[in-house]
Design a protein that fits this description.
There is one protein chain. The protein is an alpha/beta fold. Helices cover 47% and strands 16% of the residues. A 6-stranded mixed beta sheet has the order 1-2-3-5-7-10, with helices on both faces. Strand 2, helix 1 and strand 3 form a beta-alpha-beta unit. It is globular, with a radius of gyration of 19 Å. The structure holds 4-(N,N-dimethylamino)cinnamoyl-COA. 4-(N,N-dimethylamino)cinnamoyl-COA binds next to helix 2 and strand 6.
Length: 258
């Protein structure tokens, strides 16, 4: 499938989606977001894809929602269209593991898109921010919510209220990103992480993702119960037998997602 604002490839069971609106620093207009949601949906149903990486360019993962597209809209228009809701939900709902590989600016909707992914690997050039306050608005797809859960109230308030950017080192220290790597190594490291995930049983990786996300939405006791039950359930899979037998027999497991 061809896209106007994405460059897409599938290699070694990893789906790679590169946001591609270079002239606007990958600003997220409605067409790009719709393409991204469509692409993720198609990768989700494609058995060849076992993990997904979303990235941008060296200069920008995405500099936010497209301000030119939004600037003239009325309340009634954005409310009736429930702007971004459906496409953003599609990204959040994707059940396969998704890594954000971020270099350069990840601002506003760009930072929110990265936070919708399961984890973020950042280049040392990455800059995260929720500068919507400078435009007279607030964040709209998770900047006041996911960011607070990830970095805590103090830093979230600081970033959302002042609009300041956080560099990669601070982002790692604050728990926003899982690792920081030299910019030249970003794609190598992100694709390697995705390939490692792709080698596992997809039943296990999808379950892990579900359990972590479920835990974020519930009490510790509920989360632990959910985790324990899905752990029990994995004993119904061939991959559990294969994984444990392979360890005992000192060989590499051959997972079949069964
Ligand atoms: N939208 C549209 N165009 C953008 C853009 C953006 N967010 N960011 C950059 N561009 C365009 C610039 O206009 C410029 O285009 P030309 O003038 O060359 O045609 C080109 O990209 C290069 O940008 P600069 O010339 O500004 O490049 P610099 O290196 O000087 O500066 C910068 C880079 C990232 C610091 C700067 O471009 C900047 O501040 N950009 C805006 C960042 C920002 O404010 N982001 C937040 C956008 S608001 C909602 C859900 C979510 C949202 C809204 C609603 N609902 C649920 C309803 C999300 C809102 C946002 O993300």
């Amino acid at each position: 499938m061809a896209y106007d604002n994405l460059i897409v490839s599938i290699n070694d069971h990893v789906g790679l989606i590169q946001l591609n609106r270079p002239k606007a620093l990958n600003a997220l207009n409605s067409k790009l977001l719709a393409e991204l949601a469509k692409c993720l949906k198609s990768m989700e149903s494609n058995d060849k894809v076992r993990a997904i990486v979303i990235t941008g360019s060296e200069k920008a993962f995405a500099a936010g929602a497209d301000i030119s597209e939004m600037s003239g809209k009325s309340f009634v228009e954005v409310y009736r269209a429930d702007m971004f809701n459906e496409d953003a939900n599609m990204i959040d709902r994707c059940r396969k593991p998704v890594i954000a590989a971020v270099a350069g600016y990840a601002l506003g909707g760009g930072c929110e898109l990265a936070m919708m992914c399961d984890f973020i690997i950042a280049a040392d050039t990455a800059k995260f921010g929720q500068p919507e306050v400078n435009l007279g608005v607030c964040a709209g797809i998770g900047g006041t919510q996911r960011l607070t859960r990830l970095v805590g109230r103090a830093k979230s308030m600081d970033m959302n209220l002042t609009g300041r950017f956080m560099d990669a080192e601070e982002a790692e220290r604050s728990g926003l990103v899982s690792r920081v790597v030299p910019a030249k190594k970003l794609m190598e490291v992100a694709l390697d992480a995705a390939e490692r995930i792709a080698e596992k049983s997809m039943i296990a990786t999808m379950t892990i993702k579900e359990a972590v996300k479920r835990g974020e939405e519930s009490s510790l006791a509920e989360g632990l119960l959910f985790e324990r039950r899905v752990f029990h359930a994995l004993f119904a899979t061939e991959d559990q037998k294969e994984g444990m037998n392979a360890f005992v027999e000192k060989r590499e497991p051959q997972f079949r997602d069964k």
